[in-house]
Amino acid sequence: MRVPLPLTAVATAAILLTTVTGATPAAADHSPDGGPLTKVSGGDPYADCTIGAQSPDSVVYPGTEVEPYLSVDPRDPKRVVTVFQQDRWNDGGARGLVASWSTDGRTFHTSTLPFSLCAPGGADYERATDPWVSTGPDGTVYAGGEGVDFTKSTRTALLAATSRDGGRTWQNLTTTHVDAQPFFNDKPTLTADPIRKGTAYQVWNRLDNDPPGPGSLDGPGYISLTRDGGRTWSEARPFVETSGVPNTQTIGHQIVVDRHTGTLYDFFDRITYTDDLSTVAEARYEMVTSTDAGRTWSAPVTVARDTSVPEVDPNDPAKMLRAGSTLPSPAIDPRTGALYMAYEGADFSGGSFDSVQLVRSTDGGRTWGSPEQISPEGVPGFSPSIAVDERGTVALTYYDLRFLKPGDTTTLPTAYQLATLPHGDPGLRSERRISRIFDWLQAPFAGGYFLGDYQGLVADGKGVRAVLTETHSDAPQNRTDVYTGTFRTS
To answer: Hey, which residues does 208 pair with through a beta bridge?
Structure first.
């Protein structure tokens, strides 16, 4: 996500989930180097919704699906739920969030998540953003996101809902936290505890710009949790503080859990701005730990420096892109407990452009190794996602621009790659393309050409399952779609 500087500009991303609207057929094979992808987005349940315009300059992109995430049932990896934003606005959020679910891993059906007024029975918010999904050990699916108002108020709300039928229907719509300006809630994620049935954690950053203006930004990490399967959630509270350093915020909180010990690890980016909030003075990825199911948390440990630079079209830097910088993607080896974090950084380009980088800890996060470059040398890489399978093979997915030719300023050929590292060893790395080559510049424009601040990847039995966004050329009413596929890691 593009880090918000002052809180006066409320801009967020949105998704939407719905009631059952039908099946989406499998798409043609898009991936000559991997298995076929299946389109999981189909139709537009919010096409007739007129809610959410902020001003005459607000532009909605109909038929766009962006920023997907996914989960598989740990009891049956063919039971898949993906979530994504539907109908992105240029100035923040989307008409709503949508889920797409499958019981066989091949045929997908859509349902609406009630996180905005555009959704049937939806929450009282004009737009929605930041979709996330996670499935517990008993098959309960937890979906999270954010409701956003632009015209009648300046509210942002953390929302959650659950499904006990694999994503067909959603219950227990809960507002876990709500604020108006000068507070702004951003980038929530939601993690179901893999060993504690009925327990899940929602974490995010809560920005405070009171009084509004330079020199008064504070952005601690907040948490709310459920221990009864999503029927109720605890009162939100800070668990990562930033008040000790002026003009500091966190962003990108995400929890992973050690199945053997029950330890929780929360990863995030800590960013400190100059006094006028115009530039970043320092940024670093950190991690905090809980050994009592989220009740108490350790002091932060530094994982890596955030060396990311603005995401742009290399041939035309005036064209801003919007991808995954500042957002860590963590994972844990289910056998050994080794921790990994993938992220965008410019360590290997002399600060010229971002690559996909990886760091590892083998001592529970107390110490971390040096960054390793995963995306190819000399090629910008974006939006890494990471997962570790049952054999300890590390998988990473990401977009890169290797097909861009010098001097091409009219298109931005982009493809999605899958890299695998047996035992996490970069020396054993292999890679394959798993998407079509598509033009990123066909994506909706929302603070940059927008495929989403993140994509998704999970371990899936014998391999991994990815979810990603692709664009279509010459299709203004259907600029993007969301696809998924499974891939062996050995």
So the answer is: 183, 218
At 476, phi and psi to the nearest 5? -60, -20
- Please give the distance of CA 124 from its chain centroid, rounded to a whole number: 23
Q: Which residue in 261, 383, 227, 397 sits closest to 332, CA to CA?
A: 261
Tokens (6 digits) for 470: 């692709």
Rounded distance between C-alpha atoms, residue 94 and residue 65, angstroms: 9
Give residue-wise pLDDT tens across range 332-386. Answer: 999 999 999 999 999 999 999 999 999 999 999 999 999 999 999 999 999 999 9
- pLDDT single digits (tens) 19-39: 333 444 334 334 445 568 999
Q: Name the phi and psi angles at 329, rounded to 5.
A: -120, 105
Cα 177 to Cα 156: distance, rounded to the nearest angstrom: 8
Helices in 96-233 by DSSP H: which ranges? none
Question: Which of 242, 272, 240, 244 shows the shortest CA–CA distance to 253?
Answer: 240
Q: How many CA atoms lie within 13 A of 328 on its CB side?
A: 34
Q: Is the dihedral of CA 394, 398, 404, 406 positive or negative?
A: negative
In the chain, what are the domain boundaries? 23-488
- Residue 191: both structure tokens together: 């993690």
Q: Residue 151 half-sphere exposure, CB side, CA atoms within 13 Å?
A: 12
Phi, psi of 223 (to 5 degrees): -140, 145
Q: Measured between alpha carbons, how far is 73 from 81 in angstroms, rounded to an integer?
A: 8
Conformation bin of residue 294: beta by default, left when phi > 0, alpha when psi is -120 to 50:
left
Question: Domain 23-488: which CATH class?
Answer: mainly beta
DSSP classification of residue 335: T
Q: Rg of the Cα trace of the chain?
A: 20
pTM of the predicted protein model? 0.93
* Closest C-alpha to 122, from 22, 51, 21: 51
The answer to whether 96 and 66 are in contact (CB under 8 A) is no
Which residue is associated with the tokens 């517990």?
Answer: 136
DSSP letter for 477, please: T
